[in-house]
Amino acid sequence: MVGPEQAAVADEKDEKQEESAEAKPSNELKVVIILNDSRVMLGVQSPDCDPVYTTLKGNLAAALKRVPKLVEEAKQKWNESPRNPNANLPTPVPRPAPARASTAPKKETAQPSFF
């Protein structure tokens, strides 16, 4: 049978394990390479972090040489700030209501239209 003191110690251990699991950065990493003629776009992304992109000229070999440096740059950026700051955009000005068409009846013309 577990006493109240042992239960409290077990709860503290569980909380510490959860905190350490949350504090650990994910080791999952996604690298994207897009080749278009002689242009290359490289991207690196990790869960719960904004992606980091760069472009360069070259071929697949040049892109593969650049990947380790981009990964290090991304990890450094994510350590400082994993997410980009939210944009503080001004609230949009409400549009004025469109003018309504007159509901007055049309005046009849003096001459009837035959066509």
From TrEMBL:
Composition skew (Basic and acidic residues), residue ranges: 10-26
Region entry Disordered, spans: 1-26, 74-115
Name of the protein described by the UniProt record: Uncharacterized protein
